[in-house]
């Protein structure tokens, strides 16, 4: 038995030996905004989408290419053509024997080519679609930031509760230890039996076990806060402020459709609409200007013969089977599906708001009942403690009252914590 007590005390001292960092809610949220990995990913996504928008400029800007080619051939057609490009045709080159069986020749060509889009109807729609995608990403990033802030507030509230519960359990443990001292004295005086002492020790061990659970929960919650803040795990945080009843917010019947996640959904639908426009405009004709400038010679570094060519091309895909019409129908259905999904999402959010509002109303009643039960348990324990000191109550009755007092005190704290979290939920849903 003595070894068991030593082990318990060692475990408790080990858990309580961790250093505690005082943490304010404002500091936790600030560190999250700077260091959270999810926000870092979102910022990179914004930059990537911005680069996609820059890429669409290619549909308006010219494209210039420079190339250099070297040939060696005795192909009749190419041999004669290369000589024409080199501007080196002689009368003898028209000899049928040489035309049909020419000698191998060398040809070196340097070419600069320019392409300039003039009319491309689908590019502007594609650009607008990506701009809407960028807007959706920014809205989603803002919403994720507020979601993470809500998670920090909820974790912080839970941490406040755990420290208050730890205080209540410490008081309970002190009370049990006082009962144990009195019971040991009664045993010496012959007023208590060994079973009474064992009963008190058992109750004390149960309270110490709850203390260990609380400390473990504080460690786990501290690690979660560290992850949210982008910090290394292993720190034990203690809230700067204690658990207190939050103010009841104004009543809300529905969520705001200007919330970041809903604005992101709307921007995503607008992006799909622009993609539909792009698909339709893909069936329009395209007009592009082009130009070439060539330098030709039979020597690698010769540039004696030059030529140029400029022009305008018009291309128009009149019919490509059912590819375009099928894609248009798919995109229209996709837009309708996205609209329906957004309405379902809004309805679900309104249900969450309704639930949280009901929980707040119920929470007020729960806090009142829990506070009343706590006061009654305190008074009952006070009376039983006085009677026990006079030898008028059994040890088991006193221990039961002690356990009820601790349970009601923690229950009250838990009801305050739950109420505060529901208030945070309402604030988050109606942002």
Report on the structure:
The protein is an alpha+beta fold and 431 residues long. It contains 10 helices and 6 strands; from the N terminus they run αβααβααβααβαββαα. It has helices at 2-16, 25-35, 37-55, 76-85, 96-100, 121-189, 194-229, 260-281, 323-389, 395-429, and strands spanning 20-23, 63-73, 105-119, 236-239, 286-297, 305-315. A hairpin with a 7-residue loop joins strand 5 and strand 6 (305-315). The two termini are 57 Å apart. 23% of the residues are buried.
Primary descriptors:
single chain; 431 residues; alpha+beta; two-stranded parallel sheet; disordered N terminus
Q: What's the layout of helices and strands?
A:
Elements: H1 2-16, E1 20-23, H2 25-35, H3 37-55, E2 63-73, H4 76-85, H5 96-100, E3 105-119, H6 121-189, H7 194-229, E4 236-239, H8 260-281, E5 286-297, E6 305-315, H9 323-389, H10 395-429
How far apart are the first and last residues' alpha carbons, in Å?
57 Å
User: Strand arrangement, largest sheet?
Assistant: 2-3-5-6
For the secondary structure, the number of strands is: 6
- As a percent range, the share of helical residues equals 55-70%
Regions with pLDDT < 50 over 5+ consecutive residues?
1-6, 13-17
- Compressed to H and E, one letter per element, the order equals HEHHEHHEHHEHEEHH
What kind of sheet is the major sheet?
4 strands, antiparallel
% residues in beta strands: 5-15%
| General form | elongated
Look at the helices and sheets and give the structural class: alpha+beta
- If helices are DSSP runs of H or I spanning 4 or more residues, what is the number of helices? 10
What's the overall average pLDDT, rounded? 88
Instruction: Give the radius of gyration.
Output: 40 Å
